[in-house]
Amino acid sequence: MSAADVSPARGGKADEPEHLLRLFHDLRQYVAAGLHLSEDTAELGGPARLALIRQQFEAIAEILEVEQATTRRIGGVNLTQLAGECADVVRLTYRAPVIFERATRVMVAGDQALLRRAIGNLLDNACRAAGGAGHVQLRVDVADGEAYIEVSDDGPGFGDVAAGTGHGLQVVAAAARAYGGRLEIASVPGSGTTVRLSLPAGHPRVRSV
């Protein structure tokens, strides 16, 4: 597995349209999931459906709040719980089964909104690559003092995309840079792709930067 070559985004007004495209791309997942849940065809009972609808609105509000903030709030994020919430969203909008291998509670230092967007993009890419007949595997664990989120698919789609391209991977790479982690991609044409976001493990005090 090799590190992805993703160039850091450059600041300034010239990058604003690209930044907005990434933001809209990420918000689309939660809007689509909310619309699906509001339809009578949603395969959920009343309380479970309402809880998931609320989760979509809270995620949208969280992302928009961070976009408008002048400082970034850094604190302990329960990566296991966050990954589970992201998996719930993509299960509503894609046909590919998402299998989540749950570990014990894994904590990292970070901004929950940015990490939510990063995990959501990893799953979005994998589900699109897997298609209707493929599978997606999601893992969260700790190894050698590092926490990691690993997403694998068995489809051919994502393997045809150059590393570091697209709106989704730019957000994942930004999360890796922001928290001293790394992004690694391993792909075999026709056999699937594995993407791992590794971050320093730990539960720090909340702070603003």
Automatic annotation (TrEMBL):
Keyword annotations: Kinase, Phosphoprotein, Transferase, Two-component regulatory system
One Gene Ontology term from the biological process aspect of the record: phosphorelay signal transduction system
InterPro entries tied to this protein: 2C_sensor_his_kinase, HATPase_C_sf, HATPase_dom, His_kinase_dom, Sig_transdc_His_kin-like_C
Top-level taxon: Bacteria
Gene3D superfamilies: Histidine kinase-like ATPase, C-terminal domain (3.30.565.10)
EC class: transferase
Keyword Ribonucleoprotein annotated: no
Annotated ranges, domain Histidine kinase: 90-203
EC nos: 2.7.13.3
N-terminal signal peptide: none
Pfam families (UniProt xref): HATPase_c
Reaction catalyzed: ATP + protein L-histidine = ADP + protein N-phospho-L-histidine
GO MF annotations in UniProt: protein histidine kinase activity
Kinase among keywords: yes
Name under which the protein is recorded: histidine kinase
Species of provenance: Kribbella jejuensis
